[in-house]
Model the fold of this input.
Amino acid sequence: MKLSDYTITVENYPKEGEYLLFNTRTQAMVKIEQGLKEIIADYYNPQKFSLKTKYCNELDQLFKMGILVENEDQDREKLRSFFRQLKYGVNRSFMHVTLLTTDACNFDCVYCFEKGARENINMEEPTCNHAMDWMKNKVERLGYEELYITFYGGEPLVNKPALEYLASEMKNWCDERKVRFRFMLQTNGYLITPEYIDKLLKLGLSSVRISVDGLAHIHDKNRPLKGGGGTFYTIMDNIVECLDKVKIGLSVSYDKDDIKHIEDLLDYLDDLEILHKLGDFIFSPIHPSFGSKSHPELFRQMSCMCNYDDDVIISAAGKIHQLMEHKGLPIKNGMTITACPLTMENGGVTIDQRGNIYKCNSMLGYKEFSVGDVFSDEYNFQHQKFLNLSPWQSCPQDCPYLPMCSGGCRFMAFLENKNFHKPTCKKRYLDEMAPVFIKREYEALIPKDK
Ligand code: SF4
Ligand code: SF4
Done:
């Protein structure tokens, strides 16, 4: 019996002589005392026999939780089986599809990755119909309990007919079959009104996500209206007017160690008395990407695409974490399993306005990386090539983060190495942040004064 290589120990917490054990594969967490810790560390010592008997139930529980394993071979076998399940399994609780109903936009953002290649193409009705048939087929064939759509663009509100058509048709179809249906709107926030939110709520709107870059002097420079003009104050007014109707979350990006613009924005939202009414915040580092074909120097950001092997990003992420804690805002659990959908048979997909299907939003517009289209039920050869990627096999097999990281983002690997195979490691970041995340998870379960 030994501690699994994927169990992380936080020493002397919550008290001196107490230890938190967290397993990244099973996500189990437990607090143990000194005596039990000593037995685990020296399990085969015959002098510990009587103590082993004393702690027999606890040891059994730790084994069931995956925190302890019989030996290294068993640890590795459980890991391989876990990765097989992740790659080929189906999470029937919901299917997530992102729909790009248009690539047109009313903004002219400085780092927009699409604008160089923008053709102002809306998703036409025949493509909408094929997209719906494709989703229905998947929901029925794989038995999903819920369909969750994100409407995305361009700006989805510049093509309202497609959004409303798709949402109402899919809602009716799901209602008839007792499949839950909801959708999220990823928007720049300029065109939302309480009246329009009311209309969308009837169609299944569950939340809105708006991208904001900081206060007006930063946001308006980065995200002006097409043809010129600031957008910050209109967006803030819209948020205030709609917030009582629907959950609104904000995405904020950063590209340096300086997070002052985030601090200023949170203070401003606090002054407006809406900071704690808002839904979750997503803070994402901006990374270079393919850009559009004609503007490869342009930038875009993705929430799941984080290169945390960069000192500047590690430092900024730490500061944001402290800031969120200071403001009393909910922080996402940093220890969850985040498998890259590109390497999963049944993960979420994005359907663009022409009906091409992608598994990674960072590759949108690069047809060679599309995995199929809505005009066929089968994925193409590229899908199989992505599915064959197993970067975790090149990582040290005793890396404690292996189950939750699985070798990192494939897109970053391609940007850095021009191939999809190498791991993109965030071990330095996780070494620094994992104890903080685990303590916070523990505190969320068991408040400090208990
Ligand atoms: S490669 Fe995977 S992890 Fe990286 S941005 Fe794309 S979908 Fe996300
Ligand atoms: S990429 Fe790095 S952190 Fe992730 S599993 Fe591999 S070695 Fe561990």
About this structure: Residues 259 and 316 are 7 Å apart (CA to CA).
